[in-house]
Amino acid sequence: VQLLESGPRLVKPSESLSLTCTVSTDAMSPYYWAWIRQPPGKGLESIGYVYYTGNTYYNPSFARRVTMSVDRSQNQFSLILNSVTAADTATYYCARVGDCSGASCTWTFYMDVWGKGTTVTVSS
Amino acid sequence: HGLTQPPSVSVAPGQTATISCGGDSVATESVHWYQQRPGQAPVLVVFDDRDRPSGIPDRFYGASSGNTATLTITRVEAGDEADYYCQLWDRNIDHVVFGGGTKLTVL
To answer: Which of B19, B96, B97, B98 is best to mutate for the A interface (most A CBs within 10 A)?
Structure first.
């Protein structure tokens, strides 16, 4: 499986950042799919997850301005982050969450496949 | 609710590097580790405390005890020089958290 992020590299302050991740195979089921970002010179930060059914799980830090969705017909999932500021300048990664394990199918939310990342700059 | 990692670890080639990850949730949740070489995307090297994905050499192994998880890299090579991040699902915020990262320098 390979993942490829796409979308505008430059976004104006107060506007919306919109990214799409294309999955190379017809295998979005039965996984969770993630968006992770990394500001320049800083660490990793989870934005949220979308299940292949469309259920979403957002980081509380982003919940008020993020929307994620999945389009299984296109093997894609997407991120929209509203009201961006310079603090949202970062490399954005999409990733697949590794499979659940055990008889009860417990998810531990590790990311086993990552895209190469796309750098988004917020600037006027 | 954060995860604490040392900012940097240095080790000579052929020696063993140990990177710690501390936090209250470590005691109850599975910990995962990622390697990020400069300019590249993270790569999963250990999941569920001690399991390795296929293709990751057995020089990388993880352990967890109490509130501290540890990534150990034996017979360190120049190519192991990277940032390493720990991560788990934090039930307190019902979301994933990452450690601040540890820069491994191979002397």
So the answer is: B96
- Phi then psi dihedrals of residue B48, to 5 deg: 50, 50
CA distance A30 to B11: 41
A45-51/A56-58 β-pairing: antiparallel
* CA-only gyration radius of chain A, Å: 14
Would you call A98 an interface residue with chain B, using a CB distance cutoff of 8 Å? Answer: yes
Question: What pLDDT tens digit does each residue of chain B (107 aa) get?
Answer: 589 999 999 999 999 999 999 999 999 999 999 999 999 999 999 999 999 999 999 999 999 999 999 999 999 999 999 999 999 999 888 899 999 999 999 99
Cα A23 to Cα B107: distance, rounded to the nearest angstrom: 39
Contacts of A8 (CB under 8 A, 6+ apart): A17, A18, A120
